[in-house]
Amino acid sequence: MARKVFIDTNVFLDLLLSRGEHGLKARDFFMRANKEKVHLFTSITCIQTIIYVLEKAKFDGNKIRQSISYLNKIVMLIDTSHQDVNAAIESKIKDLEDAILYYTAISNNCEFIITRNVKDFPESNEQISILKPEEF
Q1: Cα–Cα distance measured from residue 9 to residue 22, given in angstroms and rounded to the nearest whole number
Q2: Which residue range is the domain that position 28 belongs to?
Q3: For every one of its 136 residues, what pLDDT tens digit does the chain have, with 9 covering 90 and above?
Q4: Strand order across the beta sheet in which 76-78 lies
Q5: Is 70 helix (H, G, I), strand (E, B) or coil?
Q6: Are 7 and 41 in contact (CB under 8 A)?
Q7: What is the DSSP string of 34-54?
Q8: Pure H helices in the chain
Q9: CATH of the domain at 70
C-alpha cells in the first residue's frame, strides 16, 4: 500500500521559487515520490498561501495558474475539519498555522509530514513522522 505523505507549503515554494539548495532538494523529493508511487497530500490553505506568495513575488497570473495546475496534478487536497482547528488551538504547538496542518495530516491518516521547518512541528511519534524532503 502506498504511503500517505502531507506536504507543507514551504516545500512547494522552494520548488516553485527555485530557492537554491532547498529548491533542488524539493525537486529531488518530488521526483523520488513520483518514482515510488507515494500518495501526496496538502490542504487548500497551503495552495492559497502559495498563490499569495507567488503574487507577492510578482509572478504573472498565467504562471501562477500553471504552477497551481501542476501542483493540482501531483497532490490531492484534503480537508481541514472543525476538530482539526480545535485540536490545533488546544495544542502546545507554537505556530498555529503549522498546528492546523499537523492535525489535518493526522486526521487524514497521513504517515509523514514533509517540511523544511521540522522544528515548527512536534517530534515524530507513532502517529506521524516529520521529515525534511531529503530525509524521506
Answers
A1: 13
A2: 4-135
A3: 679 999 999 999 999 999 999 999 999 999 999 888 899 999 999 999 999 999 999 999 999 999 999 999 999 999 999 999 999 999 999 999 999 999 999 999 999 999 999 998 988 788 899 999 999 9
A4: 76-78, 39-43, 4-7, 112-114, 129-131
A5: helix
A6: yes
A7: HHTTPEEEEEHHHHHHHHHHH
A8: 9-16, 20-35, 44-56, 61-74, 82-90, 96-107
A9: 3.40.50.1010
- The angle that helices 44-56 and 61-74 make with each other, rounded to 10 degrees, is 150
Position 73, amino acid: K
Q: Please say whether the beta carbons of 103 and 115 come within 8 A.
A: no
The string of DSSP codes covering 15-31 is HHTT-HHHHHHHHHHHH
Q: Is 1 helix (H, G, I), strand (E, B) or coil?
A: coil
Tally of domains in the chain: 1
